[in-house]
Amino acid sequence: MVNLLANVGVWWLEILQRVGRGFLFFIQILTGLPALLMRPGLLIKELYSVGVLSLTIILVSGLFVGMVLGLQFFMTLSRFGAESALSVTVNLTLLRELGPVVTALLFAGRAGSALTAEIGLMKTTEQLSGMEMMAVDPVHRVIAPRFLASVIAMPLLAVLFSVVGILSAWFIGAGLLGVDSGSFWAQMQTSVDWYNDAMNGIYKSIVFGIVVAWIAVFEGYDTIPTSEGVGRATTRTVVNGSLAVLALDFILTSLMFGGI
Amino acid sequence: MEEYIVFDDVHFSRGQRKIFNGMNLAVPKGKTTAIMGPSGTGKTTLLKLIGGLLMPEQGTVHVDGKSVGQLGHDDLFTLRKSMGMLFQSGALLTDESVYENVAYPLREHTKLPEPMLRDLVSMKLEAVGLRGAIDMMPSELSGGMARRVALARSIALDPDLIMYDEPFTGLDPITMSTVVTLIKKLNDALGITSLMVSHDVAETLSIADYCHIISDGKVVVSGTPDELQQSDSEWVQQFLQGRPDGPAPFHYPTAPIAEDLGVKHG
After folding, report:
1. How many helices (H) and strands (E) does chain B have?
2. For B94, which of A125, A129, A133 is closest by C-beta distance?
3. Residues of B with CB below 8 A from A129's CB?
4. Which residues of chain B are within 8 Å of residue A134 when distances are taken between CB atoms?
5. Distances (CA, A) of B48 to A133, A244, B43, B163, B167
6. Which of A93, A166, B58, B83 has the fewest C-beta atoms under 10 angstroms from its C-beta?
7. What is the DSSP letter of B140?
8. Alpha helix (H) ranges present in B110-233?
9. Are A146 and A113 in contact (CB under 8 A)?
10. Touching check for A246 and chain B: CB below 8 Å?
């Protein structure tokens, strides 16, 4: 029993220690951001890596999610003769929730895992130590550009996801199932509020971008420098990043849209 | 003789394992000093303590009169600009070419124009015999070539101190003799301090001015190569001559194998 309690205590202490290290690391990253203004090339390279290279999975997912939403909402709404509400339901679902959340989950799986593996391998092969010995701070040179690029890329990808989703839902609803196209866009104009719906979705994705990027770069930097360590760190990025996104989504939704 | 690096009662552990247990050591300025010892005695750790990549639990490490553990972030990075370190693995940036790797510290710390940068990198690579590999990627290099590129990178900023972690491992005989000569020439021509960690006894003793042999977290013996070779310590002779039998155990301490296998004696 005493051993069990001791183990639980050690486990908690380790978690607290890691959280503490994570926060200190976050502060280190923030201090490295101003220097990036002098070297925009570093940021652009990472924007390509985490943003442009994530486009395929984001756009294709947006396409199918939008089509499924269009189909499902149409079938449910048509039972009550409310097909005309298809535009409102699809738009609000995508802009407020699915756009930011699904993009963040996909981002954690594609770019987040790649960031952790890349940084973890740099640590394992002593590239980060090599930089330090060349008097180059790896947090500023390697971590900060990747972090900022992720924070910038996330809302842009979320917007693209929502746009493609809305277009594909329109294609299913108006193009294939007979919903009036003019009414679809008119309803969108009247019932979607720019600030409450669109901007809040973007704010959400910025928060998700910060959290997912932070988890990804920290896991990579804090990895145990072995092949198993890098594998575990990559898994933790995807699992912890996804859980953090879902939990934060609930908190942000209740703060932004009320209800509780 | 002026001392460039001084270890004073340094204690350091990795987990439960004690690596240094009151290590005292001095490295003279402008000389080539070798650190030798059996595997796992903390030779690489020693270099990392000097570079501030690791911090001692107790005691101090002074480099050029500055206590490494007491330096702030900026001061530590300023000190590191005067150091070069050749890592055992080379530690080359794998997504950059040989040219970019050697140019890296120059780009980070100087504002030299590109043509001058190219000339400097070519000169450094010429010194290690790899000017012809300037546009290759690290993945295209053999282990020995990668180490030589890393050597060129570590001398890019003309440091006051160069630390070599196993510089001769994995090199073919021709390259090895070239690197041995290069290290000696660098030290003599530039008057820099060289600290070398190596297992290659013959090569190391041929260029070192001074040697320390460490074991069990402490310096066991120090002296010039001649003094070490004439040492009457059985331990030193076993190590220098690579004899399997002697006071230094080959096996890591553990219970007798008969116990593990469940074999009863008698």
Report:
1. 10, 10
2. A125
3. 48, 53, 87, 91
4. 80, 104-105, 108, 153, 157
5. 9, 36, 9, 10, 15
6. B58
7. G
8. 114-127, 143-154, 173-190, 201-207, 225-229
9. no
10. no
Euclidean distance between CA atoms B149 and B133, whole angstroms: 9
Minimum distance, in Å, between the CA of residue A60 and any CA atom of chain B: 29
The pair of three-digit structure tokens given for residue A167, joined into one six-digit string? 């277009």
Cα–Cα distance for residue pair A173/A176, rounded to 1 Å: 6
Strands B32-36 and B193-197: parallel
For residue A182, what are its two tokens? 């003019």
| Closest in A126, A127, A134 to B105, CB measured | A134
Asked if A143 and A29 touch (Cβ cutoff 8 Å), the reply is yes
Coil, helix or strand at residue B8 = strand
pTM of the model: 0.87
Q: Are B49 and B57 in contact (CB under 8 A)?
A: no
Residue ranges per structural domain of chain A = 2-256
Q: Do A134 and B51 touch (CB under 8 A)?
A: no
Per-residue pLDDT of chain B (266 residues; tens, 9 = 90+): 788 999 999 999 988 888 888 889 999 998 899 998 888 888 889 999 999 999 999 999 999 989 998 999 889 999 999 999 998 888 999 999 999 999 999 998 998 999 999 999 999 999 888 899 999 999 999 888 888 899 899 988 889 999 999 888 877 888 888 888 888 888 888 788 999 998 888 888 888 999 998 888 888 888 898 888 888 888 888 888 877 776 666 666 677 788 888 876 55
β partners of residue B27: B5
